[in-house]
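Weekend entry, working from home. Most of the wet-lab plans are on hold until the incubator is repaired, so I used the time to fold the two sequences that have been sitting in the queue since the last round of cloning. Logging both here for the record. First:
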Amino acid sequence: MARDDGGQASLIPAVPKRIAAAETPGRGFALPLLIAALIVAALYFGREILIPIAIAVLLSFVLWPLVSLLRRLRLGRTASIGLSVLTCLGVVGLLTLIIGLQVADLGSNLPQYQRTIERKLENLREGPVGSVAGYMRSIGKHLQQAGSIPEDKAKPQDPTAPRPAPTVQNPDKPVLVEVRERELTPLELAERLLSPALAPLATTGIVFVVLMFILGQREDLRDRLIRLAGSSDLHRTTVAMNDAARRLSRFFLVQLALNAGFGVAIGIGLWIIGVPSPILWGIFTALMRFVPYVGAFLSALLPLLLAAAVDPGWHMVLATAALFLILEPIVGQVVEPLLYGHSTGLSPFAVLVSALFWTWLWGPVGLLLSTPLTVCLVVLGRHVDQLEFLDVLFGDRPALTPVENFYQRLLADDPDEAQELAESILSECSLSSYYDDVVLKGLQLAASDARRGVLTEEQLERIRTAIDELVTDLADREDVAPAAQTSLAGRLLGRDADAAAPCDGEPAVPGAPAPETLPAPWRQKGAVLCVAGRGPLDEAASTMLSQLLEKNGLGTRVVPFAAVSRARIADLDAGEARMVCISYLEISGTPAHLRYLVQRVRRRLPQARILVGLWPTDDLALADPEARAALGADDHVTSLREAVEACLAAATGEAASAGRPAPVAPAPRSASLPAGAPA
């Protein structure tokens, strides 16, 4: 793609560069692959340093709200950071002490648990399972005896055969040697006892030192990150990064509180059931819940094994299993959607891949950090243009826009999935919004491809059939906007588009009169003629407009372009038409054929009001008021909703002019007559 003199990308292909790229296939992917390989190698070989840094970064998001609160209490920046870090260190130390005491208590009772497990296994062997296994062994033994002949009977001994000579034992006996280790010095004994704890202590020290520097240099680190991203708009990116940091802090804090609450509930439940060391299993469950999907159920394995080792029967095992099977669905399916939505902003595939990737790189610690780290990467991708590929790869937002997805479903001849997509979108917006923002724009893409000759007539026919079926399937749906519901996850992760509905259960056309209050002539069939343009898909747009008008109480009839051609317009059965709506999806330049069509309709129906729907709003020629005035129409609209508003305004205006009380109808937002246009 070449660039013009102004530095903008041009659609004119650069032929020499394209030929050069074709001569060296794969060169464009070599450098990114090399960089990715170097990053992965650095993450793997530098894990001893990078793991503490990653933990410190995540803790900084969790502690920053506390630091901000302390600073608002006029405690000072350094004092706020120090107090927050000390609080976190105290919590970690307390949890470590509790875990150590619980593990020590658990280890002292291991022999007793082992005897209980052995008795249960012995009971299983003596019970029905053992009886079946013994019965099967006896059957196998009988079959083996029936099918085999003893060797001494198969081969009779020869009395004349020489007997084997007796073996002579070696008179030399082995000498027993006892190896004794020398006694350790006090220094060596202390080193052996303390060495297992040195590595965790060193990691903890690195984490909290880095944490203090991150909290102290937060703004400076943010600015350096923006500089590395190479943003051309520093102000916008700075605001976006600050907003992303606040959202991540709240998200991680809510997630930590939820997992901690789940661990407390599990610990209390295990204490009531009687499982030993319930505090240990509560902490373990809270940590494992950071592992998506399966973490909570994996954390139930050890308590189940311990319950089986403690209780001679099976009541404790069943109660423990019921505790996890009841609490996890409640928290996962009820509490989590209320707090931060059904997901963390990641696609399920990204969650699985990130868990495998970080576990392979950093082991169990990587498994616990996989989801938080990937969430951070996705948020960066949503706010930094150069990292947008991270959002595309790992985010839960669709890779294609709803318009592109709709058009792709039509091209793939998959009307069922297009219908499913429509139901999903209609759960958040009104029918007219769906037609305007998705279907019309998708039909514009199809009309543009048809004009370029890349769509065959068979494909066009399939698209027309799919649109007719879609409109028919949506005939029973009211044109109302569902209640807007924005989850906390949408607010935390920047998904403000969740509140797509313009109103809460009200009609999509604000202030629209009730259908029964419209004048009777406008409610008769054919009061509004929806005339299709000469494009291959214009009739589909007219069909959608007709459906929306009928849902608002107006009688309509769809007229194909052939019925208003020069040869056949004289035979047009117009009836008592009050308004004519002409729809065009693909039009460019100064459309002489549209002007002549308006003139023919004007001569045939001089009493009717003419509305032209020019759906390609980016057309510069028709954006000029003079160009619109030259068409000779009464109203010009750029959306189906504006067309409905214009028709309702015309109907209520006629009732008012006749001296009858008419309900108030909204003036169409873009349907007003341009300056200089004929009435």
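Second, folded right after the first finished:
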Amino acid sequence: MSQTLPKLSHYLVDEAQYNLLRSVGYLSVDERRDIIDACAFGDVAHIKDKRKSGEPYITHPIAVAEILAGFRLDRDTIIAAILHDTVEDTEVSDEQIEQRYGKVVARLVDGVTKLKSSSHNKQQNKAATFHKILTATLNDPRVLIIKLADRLHNMSTLDAVRPEKQRATAQETLDFYVPFARLMGINDIADYIEVLCYRNLDSDMYNKLSDKLLQYGLGRNFQKEAIHRYLIIVLSSLGLTGHVKILDNRVTMYRQFFRNRGEINTLLRQYSFEIVLDTIEACDKLAYYLIKKYQIADDNIADNIRRPLPGGNQSLTLIYDRDNDSIKVTIMTKKMQRAALLGVIGAEHASDISQSVIQASLRNMKELIDEDSLDDNSPDFSAAVSTINELMDYLHSSKIICYSPQGRAYELPQGSTALDFAYAVGPMVGNVAVGANIDHKHAKLGTVVTNGQTVEIEVDKSSEPKAEWLGFVATNKARQQILRWFKDLSHEDKQRHGQQALDRALKTYQKSLDDLSVSDWNNLLEWRGISQKQDLFEQISSGTLLPQLIVSRLFNDDITNMCAQDDNEQMVQPQQLIANAAGVELDFANCCHPIYGDPIVGHLSRHGLVAHRHKCFSLDDIRKDNPYQVIQLRWRDDKAVKQTESEEYGGKIRFSAYLKLSIILSDEQISEVVYHLRQLNIGVETVDVRSTDTVLQVVVRSRSHLAQGIRELRSLLGFPNIMRLYQL
């Protein structure tokens, strides 16, 4: 083959072309001829360009194309990969590419081409580029896999760039490209990229775990083979035919290590296997045997065959302990394995339910972007920043999949309610919702739904949205649809709805509007800076004031501010940090100790509004009895609080947090810990050295401030596991 290929500008380019052509043998002769032509075309276009390492630049896009050839992708994708930087970095135009290789190739190249404007800052340019990639991917998912292969090759060759650039590229990749790829079900390539991100983010941490893997490599291999043989014997004894594969679980280990989710010695005893069988019935038979033999708890069983993961991947996953080892077995059929390889790109190979889940993710992302906000001729860079901020929140939120009775999948953020599901189905359903059936059991609209549940919404065509709904819906979509409905009402109707909502909220305290005194009304009007009741009612229906908060202000006992504070200083009151609870008595719950930056909700108790972390276990019983007593709360944005800290209050925002370190600290180490934390303006209140661990009570400003302290402690103490405790 090497003799028939044309000679290009450099022997390294010839070598890259040769390796690519060896990888695309699955394509036709004509398609391979087009790829050879694209290599020559790209070589001429990039003739003056060099990589940081000094190599001819064209070797990079050809290597990207070779990565994609490993997935047996089509001719258009391979050629687009070869030319993906030509329009951005050379004199080549979209028209030239379209004329030579077709509209599809030109569209794919345009999808991965960065948007740049000298009149906008770096953040705006980056957001506009992300927005463009997102939009292009939703039109053709092959755009994303080209970008991922590009990132994979770049991340593996970052040694030639300065360390700050390495870390910035790795963080950007970990923040945007990896979660985006996983949501699209493209997990294989995301795994490789994620490991490279960790290598470039913190080489000390990466090398710490890598060295341990090398030290224990032989022992781990011995264990892998022993478990592998055992699983083959199990298949044989059950009369099943299938393939058992040892999985490389390094990405999981690095992720857990970097995210402070486990000790090194525990991580080293984790092993992963994939078992591919012929039918779903065979998968169930094997799973039943293992569950029974190892008494696997429900928490360690994930049936994602019937309930696919976001991204559409299907499998049956079991985690069990055997001889102090943690073994993860992923069971699937051949069809599921094929569909999982490329996620949304191979969606035609997926089952109906898997395709439904993929479509749920695509619908959510399509709703996030405004198709007109980035016109090619005059892109709106500012709008892109806002959209990408929303996208980042979405990508990094925990997600669940719920189903309609007809089996259609809807993707929702964790903590969503039945009413959020109703609005996910559509505003025509949400606006007239009156109740729900969750897994065939009647439930209120404020009931929090969980992954895999089937939700049926009860409707009444004469019903209308309620203003108090704005207090408990968790999704922006539901909130916007409710606000849109109220916005179209007349002033009189807005006032009527606000009045009715307040009356319903008062019933929580066995009160009504008639029970409010003149003094109560004057208190409320003065609080809101208005002169008449109608204005208060209109604020309720416009979403600027929750009726639940009015009731909390009127009927609560005096409470003590539990925010940690110095005896000699007046601390910032907690309600000054909550965006939507100004003027309401508020406490921080002792059961979960929320701090600024934690996702929070408010419980409308008899003693006022109490802020909890959104996952707090004590909320489960409250939600069962009265879900409407739990409302969404939001912290003020970072800029406002930072300004408050530095200017008005001199940094007096303080919260207590409790950390459990998986090591026993010596006196010398305690002194080092206290010293290093003080350098970060983190106070140490108490140190409790116990028989197997150490508990610290620290005083911090925020969740990010605490995370900074945890990173410092892990590096200082040799990377132990550090857990934040809900309570002592």
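Plan for Monday: verify the second prediction. Residues 460 and 588 are 39 Å apart (CA to CA).
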